Amino acid sequence: MSGQHKSSFATVNPSTGETLKEFPVIEGGQVDAALETADRAFHAWRGRPIAERAAVVGRAGELMKERKEELAQLITLEMGKLISEARGEVDLAASILGYYAQHGPDFAAAEPLDVAEGEAYLVNEPLGVLLGVMPWNFPLYQVVRFAGPNLVLGNTVLVKHAGICPQSALALESLFRDAQAPAGVYTNLFVSHDEISRIIDSPVVRGASLTGSEGAGAQVAERAGRNLKPSLLELGGSDVFIVLDGENLERTVKAAVAGRMANTGQSCVASKRFIVLADVYDDFLAGLRRGFAELRPGDPADEATTIGPLSSEQAASDLADQIRETVDQGAELVIGGHRIDRPGAYVEPTIITGVEPGMRAYAEELFGPVAVVYRVADEDEAVALANDSQYGLGGSVFCADVERGRRVAERVETGMVWVNHPTSTQPDLPFGGIKRSGYGRELSQLGMREFVNRKLVRVLPPDAELSGIAG
Predict the structure, then answer these.
(1) Which position among 78, 89, 268, 450 bears the catalytic label?
(2) DSSP assignment of 50-82
(3) Are 372 and 364 spatial neighbours (Cβ–Cβ below 8 Å)?
(4) What is the CA radius of gyration of the chain?
(5) What dihedral do alpha carbons 285, 286, 291, 294 form, nearest 10°?
(6) Is 268 a known active-site residue?
(7) Which of 20, 105, 218, 370 has its CB 3.0 to 4.6 Å from that of 350, i.e. a possible disulfide?
(8) Does the global pTM surpass 0.70?
(9) 220-230: per-residue pLDDT in tens?
């Protein structure tokens, strides 16, 4: 991560562009002190009964629900999420903490193995201090799906949050502290990009998780690999939304609008590429256009607003450039395509068709309110187009015949596929991707299988025959 400028941490209201509050970074000795504290905390934390660790995580979830409005307002202020969606994020994050508080001890229990003589079992032990590099688009949810299972397991976590949501980061750290997590168990770090590599290099850090861009993910993975430490990456996505028939089309279109426009399209698992069979294409496109045209921009804190700003002026500018260049390359603009004439980081809800290989929108992730719609002749062409992507995070398939939907879903090359629902998330379902969307899984039982020592214990009687010894 070297060679980059120092990170800045500031609350900039994306609906107005106003800088509201700034926070200094820490470096050098301050970072070293945080690492030492986290390491000391780990040795004490792992020694506490898992039921006690789970109780702390569960209490954090309860406090999150109690502070729902405060946390939601911070999310909306810092990254522009609609207030109703911000409240939904708080609910989801709290449910994840509650899930691991309830089920984590069972997930971490020793696992017996079937052997002919004596006994053998796997013990699930924590590794140590973990670094989490977190994004801005879900300031609570994406942190707790990393922190929750690992804290129950007995690891301690250092969290480097995104620079645009520092108050959300501090509120989350306070929440764990108020839940009686000892100092060093959950630590927020306002550090520069340059410090991340040094943190991963530290012998007390035993693993790294990143949710964010491909570039940042590659750097974290490279650094972790150099240090022979495990890593987990959840990166970009260009999720498909495959429409195989016109049955219940109104519901399908409604799902398409929701799947694309949730969080103003700023989600790795947002529906981005709409692949529609020819016999329903025109009706689907017309419905999608109507749905986009009905969206009304405004202050994301206003309950009446149905599309908010992007997270920053840079994000809005970059997305507008992608749209313009794709249209210049020969694609057709069905609706939108421009910045909205108002203060803030707003981009019109946009639909593009006629996108072909070589155009920017064909290969790149469009992180905002832009849908690319394709017409295909049949199921095989739909699958081929879906898989012609560097990404492999999520996707969805819509059709009346559930068995057909299942068959197509199993052919789509991603980490997750939903049938008759846009890609979504819940605590008891694994989340993660393949290809350039990353590796590893979070949530469900698998969320406690990434940063763990699954240690074999083999017990034999003292007079057992000595055989099968190998290196």
Answers:
(1) 268
(2) HHHHHHHHHHHHHHHHHTHHHHHHHHHHHH---
(3) no
(4) 23
(5) 140
(6) yes
(7) 370
(8) yes
(9) 999 999 999 99
